[in-house]
Amino acid sequence: MALFKKKRLEDQIAECAEQYKENYYRLAYSYVKNVDDALDIVQESVYKAIYSGKSLKNQDYIKTWIYKIVVNTSLDFLRKQKKNIVVDEELLESFDFGAIDDYEDFDLQKALDNLPFKYRTVVTLRYFEDMKINEIAEILNENTNTVKTRLYKSLEMLRIKISDEEV
Length: 167
Description:
mainly alpha; Rna Polymerase Sigma Factor, Chain: A; WH-like_DNA-bd_sf; transcription regulation
């Protein structure tokens, strides 16, 4: 009987992953800015979800639970990359003989990239994934008031950035 339930949960996770794969991909891509890395993160997240399905307390929240796994997997990936990037940047700078491009165009993606992770995640989930505040709070393991505050503050930071760019 337990094997049947486990198989059913795995099927539900697979169906959810298939249904929302573009959403999970967009979220991962918003962190890593690389097509292949984002695909790897989504694949790894689905694997983690299937492997640790027993930790899901309520099967009604599979979608948001996988979002949470995607966010954590993306952050783990960035932490690992950050260790490697420091050396790679130094090496690349030593070979850089070209002129520096200095463009001042305002771009929403550029402004979002400049937000700290905790603010960017809230904006991405709310406006690009069209999630409700309580869903975001569950994904991030935060209080709904904390999520509201971060959303408000991130919008303020974006407004300030836009104002600075227009001047």
